[in-house]
Amino acid sequence: MSFNPACAGDASPGCSCTCGCITRRRTYPTDLTDAQWAALEPLLPVPLCQTPLGGRPERHHRRAIVDAIFYLVDNGVKWRALPADFPPWRTVYGFHARWKKDGVLDDLVDRVRAAVRVAAGRNREPSAAVVDSQSVPESAEGVVPAATSGFDGHKRVNGRKRHILTDTLGLLIAVVITAAGVQDRDGAVALVRKARARGRRLLALIWADNVYEGRWTGWARAALGITIQIVRRCDSTAEFKVLPRRWVVERTFAWITRRRRCARDYERKPSHHAAMVQWAAILQMTRRLARTTTPART
């Protein structure tokens, strides 16, 4: 069992750890490997103490903080149930809440996605995307307030609906959380607006299923210059058939749902649910980035 090494060049000015999280054993499947941390660390925000604004050094190492968040997302535990070898749960939650509030999570998703695309030989910015939605049932604890919940009559699900936009590699571009009763087209409008607000200027084509057909497609072309192409299902055969392009976003939903915190809706606020989806995507993309950039052993 290996130890997580301290970043000698970065940890001393930016981290004054006294809890031992720098040298904690890497015992959980979600703990970042050295290659994954090397790929993710440069994309994280610089500690405030290393900026002209100044500030006191962080008391816990960033790698342990991120490991703790990934552990929570993957295993679905409560914040207070984080294992004792991680930094205190209040500290981990504080980083998560601050990064979410300050827009760091949005930036991190964009940076990791761009790095994965460049490593795969693609342009940094996607020009085509796939859109879809997934209704997620509420947890049995009933933490989801009625004001942000709804009923999806088609899927027979009571809870919320997550609308996602991915590139052609299945990498997350944007996520919007609504009540389950909201129409997919309304969620798609919010998605494309969010994507453009985040600087996705090259986005010109989006594939979608039959549910997204409607007047909003004309608005998207006229207002944003985005063509919505409907991928229709062939109902002439009863056997299963993979639909072009649409399978990409379905695979992304499978990646997200594998993380137990995302299997059901355990969050009080829609923004918290969106943050969990983003962390699940960051975990997936970081692993992919490390595999792409790490030379294969001979």
Q: What is the C-level CATH assignment of the largest domain?
A: Alpha Beta
Helix content range of the residues, please? 40-55%
Number of helices: 10
Q: State the CATH architecture of the largest domain.
A: 2-Layer Sandwich
For the record, the count of structural domains works out to 2
Structural notes for this entry:
With 298 residues, the chain is an alpha/beta fold. 40% of the residues lie in helices and 13% in strands. It has 10 helices and 6 strands, in the order H-H-H-H-H-E-E-E-E-H-E-H-E-H-H-H. Strands 1, 2, 3, 4, 5 and 6 form a 6-stranded mixed beta sheet that branches. Helix 3 packs across helix 10 (270-293). The protein is globular and about 60 Å long. It starts with 7 loop residues before the first helix and ends in a 5-residue tail after the last helix.
Short description:
This protein is of the alpha/beta class.
Topology:
Layout: H1 8-14, H2 34-40, H3 62-75, H4 89-101, H5 104-119, E1 128-137, E2 150-152, E3 157-167, E4 172-179, H6 184-197, E5 205-208, H7 216-224, E6 227-230, H8 246-257, H9 260-263, H10 270-293
Parallel strand pairs: 1-5, 5-6
Antiparallel strand pairs: 1-3, 2-3, 3-4
Question: What attributes characterize this protein structure?
Answer:
298 residues, alpha/beta, Nucleotidyltransferase, domain 5, 2 domains, six-stranded mixed sheet, 10 helices, 6 strands, 40% helix, globular, disordered N terminus
